[in-house]
Automatic annotation (TrEMBL):
Residues 40-199 form the Schlafen AlbA-2 domain. This is Putative LOC101860387 [Aplysia californica]. It holds the Pfam family SLFN_AlbA_2. InterPro entries: Schlafen, Schlafen_AlbA_2_dom, Schlafen_AlbA_2_dom_sf.
Length: 216
């Protein structure tokens, strides 16, 4: 599946592999305050890592990168079901996260795309507006962020699903621009520093990170 296409096919394999500039996530737990919602096994061990730390690591690598939400670790495309309200929630939450980075990340250094995910039998039909219910007035409702509790948009989506209404699936692509000659490292909203090493993210001490930046 090529970047820049207007849709992905469910269960297909992304051409890219996880490396220093690509990261796959099958969930949409964006920041550490959401981390308590779920994502633990029977022994209490974490099975999900919140996304903001990976974005911070990519920024401190200086190379930028692209993080895919809705893609499994093996590159298999599944997508995440999102209403229009939930898409707004993601944008609002990401804006809040980057504003809490230190230094704050300017909006010109990142972009967010919602790429539709289709089944094989939907290709000929093409991309269409699959939303079953949409009230423009609701879009002004404030979203509940910085918490592991569900937002009203999530509860609305769950209610729709229980009524048999299936909303569209997407791969959410978060693109970070490269930053040449990075001198001041980014600290994530959880208060820690991260750096990207090949396909791994590492929490790093501030002094060690400064040394790495000076050696580039």
């Amino acid at each position: 599946m090529e970047l820049g296409r207007k849709f992905y096919i469910r269960h297909s394999i992304l051409k890219e592999e996880e490396d220093i500039t690509h990261e796959f996530k099958g969930h949409r737990v964006l920041h550490f305050e959401e981390d308590g919602r779920n994502g633990r096994d029977a022994n209490g061990r974490k099975t999900r890592q919140y996304i903001s730390k990976y974005l911070c690591g990519m920024l401190n690598s200086g190379k930028g990168g692209r993080l895919y939400i809705g893609v499994l670790d093996n590159g298999q495309i599944e997508g995440v079901m999102l209403t229009r309200y939930q898409k707004d929630h993601i944008l609002t939450s990401l804006e809040d996260i980057f504003e809490r980075f230190e230094p704050p990340l300017h909006f010109s250094l990142y972009s967010v795309s919602f790429v539709p995910v289709l089944e094989d039998n939907e290709i000929e039909e093409g991309i269409k507006d699959g939303y079953k219910y949409w009230d423009e007035n609701q879009r002004g409702y404030p979203h509940k962020i910085r918490t592991h509790s569900y937002c009203w948009c999530d509860l609305e989506s769950q209610a729709a699903l229980m009524s048999g209404l299936i909303n569209p699936f997407y791969v959410v692509e978060i693109q970070l621009k490269s930053i040449t000659n990075l001198k001041v490292p980014y600290r994530a909203e959880d208060g820690a520093y991260y750096i990207r090493r090949n396909a791994f993210n590492e929490c790093i001490d501030y002094s060690e990170l400064i040394k790495e930046l000076e050696c580039r």
